[in-house]
Amino acid sequence: SEGYLSTIRLLTVAMNILLDFVEFPTEKITEVTRNCRPIGIGFANLGGLLMSLGIPYDSDEGRYVASMLMSAITAQAYVTSSDLAVSLDREFEYLEKNKNEMYNVIEKHYDRFNRIFTYWSPAFRNLREIIIATFKSILYDYDGNTYRKFLNSQASVLAPTGCLTKNSIVSTEHGLVRLGNLGDINGNKWQDKSFL
Questions:
Q1: Which of 143, 141, 36 has the alpha carbon at shortest distance from 95?
Q2: What own/partner pairs with CB < 8 Å and gap ≥ 24 does 30-35 have?
Q3: CA angle 61-67-72, nearest 5°?
Q4: Which end of the chain has fewer CB atoms < 10 Å from its terminal CB, N or C?
Q5: Mind listing the pLDDT tens digit for each residue in 106-125?
Q6: 151 backbone dihedrals φ, ψ, rounded to 5°
């Protein structure tokens, strides 16, 4: 658990450093990104992790593990963002006028985490208690007038990776082709096709 949380802290710091040096396609995107400082820490290869733990991918236990891992990222990234804001004596541009909304979002993350965790994987048992304590350290500092500073308006994101639809474009030996144009949709589940 501690190694996972340390990695989240390290990634949060690193992504904040990168935000000050990265180039964006337009001046407007640069301005908004530098003012709001959104970072998007998430994870990939959940299926590989679940298989290595012997947990079925499409199962309640698998969803609980995914929720726990993402909740840990969200809670720890926001705590680190707050620590950075205090250290740097800086917060993201619109926090003052959006502080109630910011805490409302974090509170919803915490509430949802608490509601779904009637069960958790034994492999992650102690992480659950750490996540609860981390969320509480953010929320119970807030009384409506004083609040934690945050350097980032957004800290975590989980993109829907691995999802292909018939309109997805894939690379083949014939160039880029829509997935729905390959193979016989009424044919066998697995068909021989050559992809690059």
A1: 36
A2: 35/92, 35/93, 35/94
A3: 130
A4: C
A5: 888 888 888 776 555 566 66
A6: -85, -20
Report H helices in the chain.
2-19, 27-36, 46-53, 60-88, 95-116, 125-139
Assess contact for 121 and 63: CB atoms under 8 A. no
pTM of the full predicted structure? 0.75
pLDDT category at 65 given cuts 50, 70, 90 is: confident
| DSSP of 18-73 | HHTT---SSHHHHHHHHHH----B----HHHHHHHHT--TTSHHHHHHHHHHHHHH
Let me know: does 152 contact 16? Beta carbons within 8 Å: yes
- The residue type of 93 is E
Contact 21, 37 (CB under 8 A): no
